[in-house]
Write a structure and sequence with these properties.
The protein is about 35% helix and about 15% strand. It has about 325 residues and is α/β, with parallel strands linked by helices. The two termini are about 30 Å apart.
Length: about 325
């Protein structure tokens, strides 16, 4: 327990006095531990193509929003600064067709605006300010997907959520910015439904989302995607540990499909999530996911997860 409390102190989850003590201990034992290891974009693209790897890729959910609003440029830059491999962002289309970053359909939770994104022009949305997770208004403004992709180029991979129906506009942004190869658009629809949309994002690292508990036939959905598109990775979500597919990925890995899991919320990882890990059960949280085949994790706690993986030797290529 003492070691774990020290671990939390180092990451800023306990009192400042504890942090100071723990930082002194860290400085004595490993002066390089606080330095993030930012990998080259070529390394990251290479790891994304590996179905099996000792290196666990870390994805920051809506950026690293502990010190900035979610889906803000600051949150994305903060994520890069702590050494994540990928940032996850949510893209939505404005009334006049501009792709912006926003998780919700409506504006109230994350901005000082009202109504829906789709009912506002980009000119109108530029005037709004973003809120923190605690609801505090900031001076940060809504970024466009184009701004994010221009920043990400040469720095970090980008997972794009909430937007398969806007893949045409997203594809235009990715081609304009020359960032198709670092983009990971995702969709939870089946392979047949995906057919008219896939043409717009050809050249990207498309990811199919498979819910092992909710999909009518998850094995068929997986096989159909592999047959039609051979996606480089798949996100597997699950509410229970009952699926016969869970942990049995030999055939997927043999077909070069990388396994992504989502501990940022308990309902996507059967309770093996960030809160469980941060709450003291590291092995029951993140460790369980590693034991069940994940080589890429979407997290709200990227700094803590990176530190944990370093202690396990799972950030070594």
């Amino acid at each position: 327990m003492k070691a774990f409390l020290t671990f939390l102190c180092l990451l800023g989850f306990l009192a400042p006095s504890s942090v100071a003590i723990a930082n002194t201990t860290l400085a004595r034992s490993d002066s390089s531990a606080a330095e993030p290891k930012n990998r080259s974009i070529e390394f990251l693209k290479g790891e994304l193509a590996k179905a099996r790897s000792n290196y666990i890729m870390v994805v920051a959910h809506r950026g690293y929003w502990h010190h900035a609003p979610e889906n803000s440029m600051a949150a994305i830059k903060n994520a890069v600064e702590i050494g994540v491999d990928m940032v996850e962002v949510d893209a939505r289309r404005t009334k006049d067709g501009v792709m912006i970053l926003m998780h919700d359909k409506t504006l109230e939770r994350t901005t000082n605006g009202t109504g829906t994104v789709a009912d506002h022009t980009w000119e109108e949305l530029q005037k709004l300010k973003l809120k923190t997770h605690e609801g505090v208004l900031t001076e940060h403004t809504i970024p466009t997907l184009e701004q994010v992709m221009n920043y990400a180029k040469g720095r970090v991979l980008v997972n794009i959520d909430k937007a398969w129906e806007a893949f045409e506009e997203i594809g235009q942004v990715l081609r304009k910015t020359g960032t198709l190869e670092i983009a990971v658009p995702k969709a939870g629809i089946n392979a047949q439904q995906m057919r008219p949309w896939m043409q717009h994002i050809q050249g990207s690292q498309f990811m199919a989302v498979i819910d092992l508990d909710k999909a009518k036939d998850p094995r068929k959905k997986i096989d159909d995607y592999i047959s039609a598109y051979q996606p480089p990775l798949m996100e597997l979500s699950f509410q229970t540990e009952n699926s016969s597919i869970l942990g049995q990925y030999g055939d997927l890995q043999a077909k070069d499909v990388k396994i992504w899991m989502t501990p940022c919320a308990p309902q996507w990882a059967a309770g093996h999530d960030d809160s469980r890990a941060i709450g003291g059960d590291l092995e029951g949280g993140w460790g369980w996911l590693l034991d069940h085949g994940a080589t890429i994790l979407l997290t709200n706690e990227p700094k803590a997860l990176i530190a944990y993986l370093e202690t396990k030797g799972r950030r070594n290529p």
